[in-house]
Amino acid sequence: MTPSNLGPFQLVANWPVMAGTAMVAFVSWLVHYRRYRAMADVPSARIATAPQGYVELVGIGRALDGLPLYTPTTGLPCLWYEYVIEEQSGDRDSNWREVHRERSDASFIIDDGSGRCVVDAERADIITAQRSVNVEYGRRTTLRVLIPGTRLYALGHLTTESGASRRPTIKAAMNDRLTQWKRDGTAQKKFDLDGNGELSLEEWELARSAARREVSREWAEDGALPDAHSLGPAPDGRWFMVSDIAPDTMVRQYRLKAWASLAGFFAALAVAVWAYRTM
Q1: How many CB atoms sit inside 10 A of residue 28's CB?
Q2: CA nearest 227: which of 60, 49, 79, 54?
Q3: How far, in Å, CA of 49 to CA of 160, rounded?
Q4: Could you say which of 78, 127, 158, 207 has the lowest number of CB atoms within 10 Å?
């Protein structure tokens, strides 16, 4: 059948095009459905008692100790930002060309009251409700941010390092203390009992015993180091994300997108089959 014999609908319903559309819709369904199931199937966990592995965390976003992070446009403190500059090419409003993209990579903390978890922001898929767009003189700037104090939702692989494993052994701490005493002269002042300017074996043993007692006393006063929790990408490739959007809202959104994509897949596939058979 030649193009002149085809009706307007048949010209639009070119089967390779519709087959490609069906594949795009199928991939879209797969992505959205997997994200929907990940959010719906993984229960929330408390940081202090969460199992190791893929978890869901909900808590308040806080900055790590140290230098604060600021947005590049307003200079306001933030946990994370992405800044995109686009320039208009041509007269159409849809013709925008990206010329600059800047994304912060500093980690931040989720605090749920039971513990604090450090989030690897550099490798996370971050979805924000906070988004500002400014268009001026043919240039469009888009800023997405996470604000400190905001309630955050996260999915990712939790790893916990116990406080006991992070504390040095008593022997290592004792040796560090002896090295410090030798450097600042404390060992000479306290344990050179005969005043000859050198520590004998007996005097050095006294210093070692004193260092052990001092380190042991300090550890007993300080208590155990807290566990260190961190959230990062899952080894099996499951979705690693952080968002300031309520989890229930996101579940509904991805469920609707999944079913809409599936409906689009079957519709495009049906048109592609019909167009192929009427060639």
Answers
A1: 17
A2: 49
A3: 10
A4: 127
Distance CA 27, CA 279 (A): 27
How far apart CA 126 and CA 33 sit, in angstroms, is 18
Asked if residues 276 and 36 have their Cβ atoms less than 8 Å apart, the reply is no
Q: Of 27-36, 94-103, 187-196, 259-268, which range is least confident?
A: 187-196
Q: What is the pLDDT of residue 137?
A: 83
Tell me the mean pLDDT in the region 124-143: 89
With tokens 């229930």, the residue in question is 248
Which residues share a beta bridge with 131?
Answer: 144
CA–CA separation, 120 and 109 (whole Å):
9
The DSSP secondary structure of 189-252, one letter per residue, reads HHH-TT-SSS--HHHHHHHHHHHHHHHHHHHHHH-PPPPEEEEE--TT----EEESS-HHHHHH
Give, in order, the Cα–Cα distances in Å from 54 to each of 82, 142, 200.
26, 32, 57
The residues with which 82 forms a beta bridge, in sequence order, are: 103, 144
230 compared with 200, residue with greater pLDDT: 230
Nearest to 230 by CA among 116, 118, 91: 118
pLDDT tens sequence across 65-100: 776 789 888 888 999 999 999 988 766 666 888 899
155/237 Cα distance (integer angstroms): 12
Q: How does residue 233 score in pLDDT terms, banded at 50, 70 and 90? A: very high
Q: What sign has the CA pseudo-torsion 118, 121, 123, 129? A: positive
